[in-house]
Amino acid sequence: MTETTSPEDQLALYRRRREESVVQPKGNLALVNTQWVDAQQPVYGVPGVWSPLPAGESGLRVVANASDGIRVDGALVDGEAVVAGKDSVSPGEIVFSDTVTGFVIAGEDGAYALRVWDAASEGIRDFGSIDAFPYNPEWVITASWIEIEGGSTVGIEHLKDEGKPRDKVVPGEIRFTKDGVDYNLAAFKEGRALLLVFADSTNGDSTYSVGRFLMVAPSPDGSITLDFNRAYLPPCAFSYNFNCPLPPKQNRFSVPIEAGEKNVLNTAGALLH
Q: Is the dihedral angle over the CA atoms 198, 203, 207, 211 positive or is it negative?
């Protein structure tokens, strides 16, 4: 194998892997339902009757017959079973059919939802490509990382939350100057890295209207690299069943960032959604 050393080659490999990831059985295009369960109820598209557990317990209860074919953690449900949430030490796994699976996610308010994935979804069937800008070295930024002791709190709105913000802890500030403009960006923790949710003047024109994401990580020397060529579309660009965070005010650029992913296209080259 030849080593990919140029930024263009590295970006091409990254983009191939991105397109492979979104069509996986639990890739972004496979999500066909996210339904919050606050009472005994059916869930669209799958069998069983679902209900919440007592407060403080993780997951959902399902009642089903053996003929429904639901398997929880490998066991056929004939009666009732508990599916532990993703916030549990041992999250539950659900199999509905050869292509349809599920798991339970936890909300910040203590509620739980069933997420349903279909490895043969319409989204996967109709997916063509992820449209993206060519490599643009002007949008590889070396910024300063200013850690905030104890972090600060920023209210982040989400696409489906009707304007109600969720508090996110921001562990530091990202500062840089470009073309005479000073920027001070907020990124919140996402696993071991930081997630920068941003918007710019291309949104709704040449790029996805809601905004884009960029994963970043501070360096020990106090710098942080923002390679906007690695900017990627949020999950809600692939499936309406995701509820994505929206860019906070300080992360909204008035200039076009012509780097990174643009839109999800179908097999005919038109917008998938």
A: positive
What is the Cα–Cα distance from 197 to 166, expressed in whole angstroms? 14
Q: Work out the mean pLDDT of the chain and round it to a whole number.
A: 95
User: Per residue in 2-19, pLDDT tens?
Assistant: 565 899 999 999 999 999
Give residue 54's domain range.
Answer: 28-118
How is residue 12 written in tokens?
A: 């091409």
Domain assignment present for residue 5? The answer is no
Q: Would 260 be classed as within a structural domain?
A: yes
Q: Is residue 79 part of a domain?
A: yes
User: Does some domain include residue 164?
Assistant: yes
Alpha-carbon radius of gyration of the chain: 21
Half-sphere exposure of 130 (CA within 13 A, CB side): 28
Question: Which of 92, 118, 144 delimits the end of a domain?
Answer: 118
Count of structural domains within the chain = 2
Asked if residue 110 and residue 147 are part of one domain, the reply reads no
Token code pair at residue 256: 């076009």
d(CA 52, CA 36): 9
Distance in angstroms (rounded) separating the CA atoms of residues 270 and 273: 9
Q: Would you say how long the chain is, in residues?
A: 273
The pLDDT tens digits for 133-177 are 999 999 999 999 999 988 888 899 999 998 889 998 899 999 999
Choosing from 99, 118, 137, the residue where a domain stops is 118
Does the pLDDT at position 99 exceed 50?
Answer: yes
Instruction: Indicate the burial class of 191 (C-beta count within 10 angstroms; 0-12, 13-18, 19 or more).
Output: exposed
